[in-house]
C-alpha cells in the first residue's frame, strides 16, 4: 500500500527491466501529477538519503522514481560499496535505468514527454551515460559524477546542469573541460557547470563531507533547471 509522508505519496514499486523485474522507490507530488524525474543512487545503494531526495523532489511537484541498481543491497563501508559498484557494468546499469524511464513515462501521474535525471557520485556518472543512450532524458543533472570514460553523446538530447566541488580530488578541472568539450562537439550542448567551495559528496547530509551552503545553492539551481526544461 502507498504511504503518505506529509502530503506526498511514496511507495515501493517494480517494473520490467529487460527480461527481468527491477525495483524502485516512487514518490508522488501533493497534487498527484507532475513531470517525471529519475533519481540515481550513490555507490552506497538506494538508502535513506536517496529516498529522502526522492521525497524532496516529490514535494516540489515532480513524480520521482529512484531505481534500485543494486537489487536491495546497501553498502555499510567504502570497500563494500566499491565491490558492489564493480559488479554493475555500465551497460547493465543503463539498461535498467532505461526500463525505469519506460515505467515512469507510462505512469498516468507523469505529465512530461521526457524525464529529468538527477544522480550523485556513481549516479552522477550514470546520469550522463543514461542521457547519452536514451533521448527521452530531457534534463540531466549530475552531482560530482567522475566519468571513467566519456560515452558517445551524439544521441543526447538533454540539457545538462552539473554540480562539482573545487576540493573534490576525484574530478579535475581538466576532466570537466574534457567533458564540456565532448558534450559541445558531439551533441551541440553547452553544459551549465557550477563549482562550489566543497569536496566530494557535498550534497549528502548524512556524510561528514556535507557542505550546507553549497548543497542549498545546488538544490535551488537544480529545481529551477528541472522546472524550466520539464514543465
Automatic annotation (TrEMBL):
Listed transmembrane segments: none
Every Dienelactone hydrolase domain range: 24-229
Pfam families the UniProt entry points to: DLH (PF01738)
SUPFAM superfamilies given in the database record: alpha/beta-Hydrolases (SSF53474)
InterPro entries: AB_hydrolase_fold (IPR029058), Dienelactn_hydro (IPR002925), Dienelactone_hydrolase-like (IPR051049)
Keywords, ordered alphabetically: Hydrolase
Coiled-coil boundaries: none
Gene3D superfamilies (alphabetical): alpha/beta hydrolase (3.40.50.1820)
UniProt GO molecular function: hydrolase activity
The keyword Hydrolase is assigned to this record: yes
Top-level taxon of the source organism: Bacteria
Protein name according to UniProt: Dienelactone hydrolase family protein
Taxonomic source organism: Actinocorallia libanotica
